[in-house]
Amino acid sequence: MKIIPLSEGSFTIDKSKLFVPFDEEEDVLNDRSTGSLLVEVQPFVLVTKNDILLLDTGLGFKNENDEMQLHANLKAAGIQPEEVTKVLLTHLHKDHAGGISFGENNHKLSFSNAKYYVQEREFDIAVQTGFPSYITEELEPLKLSDQIRFLRDDEGVIDEHISYKHTGAHSKHHQVFWIKEDKEIIFFGGDDAPQLQQMKIKYKTKYDFDADKAMQLRQQWWEQGTAEGWTFLFYHDIKIPTFKSGK
Q1: Total domains present in the chain
Q2: Angle at 56 between CA 54 and CA 236, to 5 degrees
Q3: Vertex 99 angle, CA 16 and 66, to 5°
Q4: Is the bond preceding residue 132 a cis peptide, omega within 30 degrees?
Q5: pLDDT for the residue 35
Q6: Is 117 helix (H, G, I), strand (E, B) or coil?
Q7: Assessment of whether the complete model's pTM goes beyond 0.70
């Protein structure tokens, strides 16, 4: 499998839940509001034998050329947006689901030939809750689209090589994915496992729906992944987007 990080940049976020761009060469974290977190926003594309998989969709903002940054990143990697076959969504917070669709008034799906795999319970909560954690107009095109594939079970398999598990850790209906091909195992934990350092220590956050469960799962996945040689993908890690654990 080929793994390509699609970084949209570094940001700080505080209790306002607004993502503010951060330039590490010019900006100072201590100058930001108290409690600000420094994070990367980084979807991934995986090229397998059968699929071009997009893992979460970033913030969905446009670049200076008025093109969605996610589309530009894909093209820079040699992939056209219409070539994406599956979009796997861990949850629908705006920094993970912003690139689902695009447009000013009439949003349309960003990946015309892809199936979107969404946990149905997460979708229902996102539509009901709305701003500031969710942007409902970005999700609207999914509602009646024949491209959506609602996942309703707590765990299951998609086309034999992709498995998912509902965790309810970071958000109430968060899910995680494993992509397996030949002897390789890729693990994408979204915001349940956002940064490498959080995997290595007992780290409990204030922003997880179930912080104790999230911490326990990170420890469990780290031990299992180390034993089985997983490659971890870290959506919010500033310096280390991927990490191949050793057996």
Answers
A1: 1
A2: 120
A3: 95
A4: yes
A5: 81
A6: strand
A7: yes
From 159, 239, 185, 227, select the one nearest 46 (Cα to Cα). 185
Q: How far is residue 28 CA from its own chain's centroid? A: 26
Strands (E), the chain: 2-5, 10-13, 20-21, 37-40, 44-47, 52-55, 86-88, 101-102, 108-109, 115-119, 148-151, 155-158, 162-166, 175-181, 184-188, 231-233, 242-244
Which pLDDT belongs to residue 247? 59
Question: Residue 68 carries which DSSP code?
Answer: B
10-residue averages of pLDDT along the chain (247 residues): 97 90 88 89 97 97 94 98 98 97 86 98 96 93 94 97 98 98 96 96 90 97 97 97 87
Q: What whole-number distance in Å separates Cα of residue 43 and Cα of residue 4? A: 9
- Interior angle at CA 207, CA 203 and CA 212, nearest 5: 45
Residues 6+ apart with CB under 8 A from 155: 163, 164, 165, 166
Beta strand segments in 35-122, E: 37-40, 44-47, 52-55, 86-88, 101-102, 108-109, 115-119
Burial class of residue 35, CB neighbours in 10 A (0-12, 13-18, 19+): exposed
120, two tokens? 């149905």
Q: Which residue has the tokens 């968060």?
A: 174
Ramachandran category for residue 202: left, alpha or beta (phi over 0 → left; psi -120 to 50 → alpha): beta
CB atoms within 10 A of CB 105: 5
**Residue at 234 is within a domain:** no
Beta bridge partners of 68: 62
Structural domain range at position 104: 2-191
Is the Cα dihedral 124, 149, 221, 245 positive or negative?
Answer: negative
What CATH number is attached to the domain comprising 43? 3.60.15.10
